[in-house]
């Protein structure tokens, strides 16, 4: 079969790979006369299945973003963060994009080997004050809630509070890269996968807050709204509403079923013998299928025929060399 391959693409046998669980998109080369979909068992995607976002609270519900934010504001104004209140507030600190994590101590018994470093509102306030940072409501970003546990979850960027690292280190906590957590997570454990999804959601929101400080229309400062779920331009003449950014990406496995081969790519930064599925950002005015065909043709010279959707996955951090990209990557399958 006369494929036109660039030097960074290659064909691999797929008979074994297709029994695995992590394939995301299959696209067919029309010259290879692909016909039927293949059976692939798919388990959970990393960063999907966030347990704190299972349902949306009504505006009057104490768990709703606006109600919880009002409670938060009242608590901070009255300096009563050490008193018990309902719902309980838990805060997940991040430093330079890394969530606070502790060892669960259960790894020997088969349980999760890490846990998120949730702080109470009072603890968070004390830690910040030790670094001479005042805890104000606009620093906190609403993540979601668990009504059955009477808890509302928040995230905060504490990169400016350098003293927190040593303070929390003495409690056996540290700030860990999300990719490291992803590798350390048992994907068959729904609790760990849920925690990973919470951390990913929080990371994406905080990253967006850090990179959207000014209005893209008039240049004025932006201010958080709805407990940090969106922002608004502070210019009264503009008042533009700004929502968290996502950058859709396609990830595809191009297959030559007839000849039992898959088309993979290799980048210069990869370690020896490392190959990956093709992927690329979707361009404005482009469908998912068109993006798959364009990216494959651009990257490898191979023309793709039928494209079949498989599943989608949130992705909280930089992807494919994009420094600040926050991506929601749809994935397709044939
Ligand atoms: Zn503006």
Automatic annotation (TrEMBL):
Source species, domain of life: Eukaryota
Entry-linked CDD domains: NUDIX_NADH_pyrophosphatase_Nudt13 (cd03429)
Gene3D superfamilies in UniProt: 3.90.79.20, Nucleoside Triphosphate Pyrophosphohydrolase
Signal peptide start-end: 1-19
The name this protein goes by in its record: NAD(+) diphosphatase
Essential cofactor(s): Zn(2+); Mg(2+)
Keyword Cell cycle belongs to the record: no
GO cellular component terms given for this protein: cytosol; peroxisome
Single biological process term from Gene Ontology: NADP+ catabolic process
InterPro entries xref list: NAD-cap_RNA_hydrolase_NudC, NADH_PPase-like_N, NudC-like_C, Nudix_hydrolase, NUDIX_hydrolase-like_dom_sf, NUDIX_hydrolase_CS, NUDIX_hydrolase_dom, Znr_NADH_PPase
UniProt xrefs under Pfam families: NUDIX, NUDIX-like, Zn_ribbon_NUD
Catalytic activity, reaction form: a 5'-end NAD(+)-phospho-ribonucleoside in mRNA + H2O = a 5'-end phospho-adenosine-phospho-ribonucleoside in mRNA + beta-nicotinamide D-ribonucleotide + 2 H(+)
Family: Belongs to the Nudix hydrolase family. NudC subfamily.
Organism of origin: Oldenlandia corymbosa var. corymbosa
